[in-house]
Specification:
Chain lengths: ~230, ~400
C-alpha cells in the first residue's frame, strides 16, 4: 500500500436529528483508502454503510470529523465545488439504478457529461462507447422501462464510468439482481479496478464482498474490523 | 451546461408531462386571450368612435343650442330650448362676416316613422339645405341631392340614407322616383346617399333628408319654425379652423346680444373636442376591461406556479440524481425557469392565436369591431413568459436548494 490515499476519514461522525430523537448513524469512523484499491464495506442493516457512502460521495456532509478527498478538505468546498467533484471525480452506482425513465439509455449515460460542458457530439460518442463497454451497444436507444433490471444496472455503470472518474462508489449495486446479472456487474467492476480506478463497494453478500481486495466491517457506526478479504468467506 | 442543453432538457420535460403542461398552458392561454381581446375591443371601440366623428365631415364645427337664462331668471341646460335659428346660419354663411367659413348647414331633426306600403321604418327626419352635402362631405349613389329649388318650393322630396333605403325598399330596385309616406303625406324619393362603410349602426347611414322649408312648414311645424337643432360649419381649411371658430363665436354672440362669452346660449364643438369627450368615456371601460384581463392573467400565473410546485415535488428524485451527477444548483434553477418560460411562451402563443380567431369571429356575432395590434400581441407573449418566469422562480429555487441526498432518498 504505497499508493497515496484518495480517501482519508478521521473520526467522522454523522448524527441525524429527526425531531427530538437523535440517530448516531456514524460514530467516529477513521478510514484510509488508497488510490487503485478495491474496498468492500460490509455490515448489518442500519449499521451506517449508506450514510458512509453518501459522505464519501460528497452527497452529504459529516456532522464532525475530517474528510480529505485526494488531499483536499471537503468541508472547505462550496456547493458548486462539491457538484464539480461529484461530476468529475466520482461515479455512482445505486441499488435502485436511478435512471431517468423518459430518457433513452445513451441520454441517461451522457447526463454527467452535460453538466461538465462536453459538447453534444462528443457526449454521444463517449456515451455510446461506455454502453459498448458494458455490452449494451445495441440498446442505446431503449428507454429504461424497455430494459431488464440487470441491463438497467449496466446502463447505470456506463453512466458512472463515462466521465472516467478516479473513484467509483457502488451502494449494493447487485441488491436487486439475479446471479447472472450480479456476475456481469461484478466483472465490470473488476475491469474498472484493473484499469486503475479506486472502487468502494457496499454489500451484505459474502461472495460479492469476496471480489474486493480489502474488507471494512462496520457495526453501529463504528469500524469493527478491516483487513484483506477472505476469498470464499 | 450551456443554454441549448438547458432548453432541450426543459422542453423534453414539458413534452414528457403532457397533461400537466397542457393544463398550465390553458391557464396562461385564457389570461392572454382575455388581454388580447380586451385590448382589441377597446381599440375597436375607439376606432369606431373616431370614424363616426370623422364621418361628420372634415374641418367641421358643430354649433349646438346651449344653456339659457330666461328673463325671469330661470336657467335651462344644454339643448333645453332651441336658441339657434336659420337666421344665425344665414349670417355665418355670409363670407363678408366670416371669411374663413366655407359652408354652413343648419339642421332640424326629429325621430319619425316612414312607411312604404306595409313596410315602416323609424328614422331621423332631417330638415336642411343643399349646403349639407358639402359640409358633411357626402355623396349620392343614385338620383340627386336637395336643390335650392326644392327649398324655395318646399317640395315634397326626400333623400334617403343607404340603410334607410334598404329598410323601406327591402325588395331591392332603385327607390329613386318612388314614394314614402310620413303622417299621411307623400314624399318622392329623389336620391340615395352613398354608404359610409365604416359606420356601423350609426345615424350616418340611417336618415331621411328633406328641404328645411318642407320640414318646418309641411311636416313637423311647431311654434318656433325657425329654430334648428344644430348648425354645421365647415372651415375653408384645417389651418383656418380656429379662425372660423372665433368668427362663428363672435357672430353668434353679437346676434344674440350677449356680451360675456361665459353666458353664451350656444356651444361650439370641434371634432377633436367631441373625440376627446367620447374617448374619456371609453377610458373607464378600457380600465375596467383591463382589470378583468389582469385578474385572468394573475389566475393563470398562479396556476403555473401551482403546477411548477407539483412538478418539483414529483421530480425530487430526478433533481437529486441530477445533483448527484454534478448539476450545480444554478443549472437546476435554470432548468425549471426555462420549463416555466417554455410553458409561458407556448401558452402565450396559443392565447394570441385564439385571440386572433376571436377577433375574426366576434365582429360577426356582435357587431363590435376588434382591432388587434402586433405590438399588443408581442407584449402579451412577453407577459406570458414573464408570468412563467415569475411564478417559476419560487419552485425552481426550492428545487435547487435541496440537498442531493435528501432528494434522492425521497420516495
Ligand atoms: N435521513 C435520515 N434521517 C434520520 N435517520 C437516518 C437517516 N438516514 C439514515 N438514518 C439512520 O441512520 C442509520 C444508518 O442508516 P444507513 O442507511 O446508513 O444504514 P445501512 O447500513 O445502509 O443499512 P442497509 O443495509 O439497510 O441499507 C439507521 O439507523 C437509519 O435509520
Ligand atoms: Mg444502505
Amino acid at each position: 500500500m504505497n499508493a497515496p490515499p484518495v480517501i482519508e476519514l478521521v473520526d467522522v461522525a454523522k448524527t441525524y436529528a429527526s425531531g427530538s430523537l437523535e440517530v448516531h448513524a456514524l460514530q467516529g469512523i477513521t478510514l484510509t483508502i488508497s488510490e487503485g484499491e478495491f474496498v468492500a464495506i460490509v455490515g448489518p442493516s442500519g449499521s451506517g454503510k449508506s450514510t458512509l457512502m453518501h459522505i464519501l460521495g460528497c452527497l452529504d456532509v459529516p456532522t464532525s470529523g475530517a474528510f480529505h478527498l485526494a488531499g483536499d478538505d471537503v468541508a472547505s468546498f462550496g456547493e458548486d465545488q462539491l457538484a464539480e467533484v461529484r461530476n468529475r471525480h466520482i461515479g455512482f452506482v445505486f441499488q435502485q439504478f436511478n435512471l431517468l425513465a423518459y430518457l433513452s439509455a445513451w441520454r441517461n449515460v451522457e447526463l454527467p457529461l452535460v453538466y461538465s460542458g462536453v459538447d453534444r457530439h462528443e457526449r454521444k460518442e463517449r456515451a455510446l462507447a461506455a454502453l459498448a463497454q458494458v455490452g449494451l451497444a445495441d440498446r442505446a436507444d431503449h428507454k429504461p422501462g424497455e430494459l431488464s433490471g440487470g441491463q438497467q444496472q449496466r446502463v447505470a455503470v456506463a453512466r458512472a464510468l463515462v466521465t472516467e472518474p478516479a473513484l467509483i462508489l457502488a451502494d449494493e449495486p447487485t441488491g436487486n439482481l439475479d446471479s447472472t446479472s450480479t456476475a456481469d456487474i461484478l466483472n465490470l467492476l473488476d475491469d474498472l479496478h484493473r484499469s486503475g480506478r479506486t472502487i468502494v463497494l457496499i454489500t451484505h453478500e459474502a461472495d460479492v464482498a469476496g471480489r474486493a481486495e480489502r474488507l471494512v466491517q462496520i457495526h453501529d457506526g463504528h469500524v469493527v474490523a478491516t483487513g484483506p478479504a477472505l476469498v470464499g468467506a | 451546461m450551456n443554454w441549448r442543453d438547458t432548453v432541450r432538457t426543459a422542453t423534453e420535460a414539458v413534452r414528457t408531462h403532457r397533461l400537466r403542461s397542457a393544463l398550465t398552458m390553458l391557464g396562461i392561454l385564457i389570461g392572454i386571450t382575455a388581454v388580447i381581446l380586451t385590448v382589441g375591443l377597446g381599440n375597436g371601440a375607439k376606432a369606431q368612435v373616431r370614424d363616426q366623428i370623422n364621418e361628420l365631415g372634415t374641418n367641421l364645427l358643430v354649433v349646438s343650442p346651449g344653456s339659457t337664462t330666461s328673463s325671469s331668471g330661470l336657467r335651462g341646460g344644454l339643448g333645453s330650448s332651441s336658441t339657434l335659428t336659420r337666421q344665425d346660419a344665414a349670417s355665418l354663411a355670409d363670407s363678408a362676416v366670416a371669411p374663413d367659413i366655407q359652408a354652413v348647414a343648419a339642421v332640424s331633426t326629429s325621430s319619425v316613422s316612414l312607411t312604404n306600403g306595409t313596410t315602416n321604418w323609424t328614422t331621423t327626419l332631417t330638415g336642411t339645405t343643399k349646403s349639407w352635402q358639402e359640409v358633411r362631405s357626402r355623396k349620392v349613389t343614385s338620383g340627386r341631392f336637395l336643390t335650392d329649388a326644392d327649398q324655395q318650393s318646399s317640395a315634397a322630396v326626400v333623400v334617403l340614407g343607404s340603410s334607410t333605403a334598404t329598410e323601406l325598399f327591402p325588395t331591392g330596385g332603385d327607390p329613386v322616383g318612388q314614394y314614402v309616406t310620413y303622417n299621411g303625406k307623400q314624399l318622392k324619393v329623389v336620391g340615395v346617399l352613398a354608404e359610409l362603410s365604416s359606420s356601423e349602426q350609426t345615424t350616418n347611414n340611417d336618415l331621411a333628408i328633406v328641404p328645411a322649408s318642407t320640414y318646418s312648414q309641411r311636416l313637423i311645424g311647431g311654434t318656433t319654425r325657425d329654430s334648428v337643432s344644430s348648425i354645421y360649419v365647415k372651415a375653408t381649411s384645417s389651418d383656418t379652423l380656429s379662425a372660423a371658430y372665433q368668427e362663428a363665436n363672435g357672430t353668434l354672440l353679437n346676434l344674440h346680444g350677449i356680451t360675456a362669452s361665459s353666458s353664451a346660449d350656444f356651444s361650439i364643438a370641434t371634432q377633436e373636442s367631441i373625440l376627446t369627450a367620447a374617448t374619456s368615456v371609453d377610458k373607464t371601460l378600457t380600465v375596467m376591461l383591463g382589470g378583468i384581463a389582469a385578474i385572468s392573467l394573475l389566475v393563470g400565473g398562479i396556476g403555473v406556479m401551482n403546477i411548477m410546485l407539483v412538478s418539483v415535488t414529483e421530480r425530487i428524485r430526478e433533481i437529486g440524481l441530477r445533483k448527484a451527477l454534478g448539476a450545480q444548483p444554478r443549472f437546476i434553477r435554470r432548468q425549471f425557469l426555462v420549463e416555466a418560460s417554455v410553458l409561458g411562451f407556448f401558452g402565450g402563443l396559443l392565447g394570441v392565436g385564439i385571440g386572433l380567431i376571436g377577433a375574426v369571429v366576434l365582429p360577426h356575432l356582435t357587431d363590435t369591431r376588434v382591432i388587434l395590434s402586433a405590438g399588443a400581441s408581442a407584449a402579451a407573449i412577453a407577459m406570458a413568459i414573464g408570468i412563467g418566469v415569475m411564478f417559476g422562480v419560487y419552485p425552481a429555487s426550492r428545487a435547487a436548494r435541496l440537498a442531493p441526498i435528501d432528494a434522492l432518498r425521497n420516495e
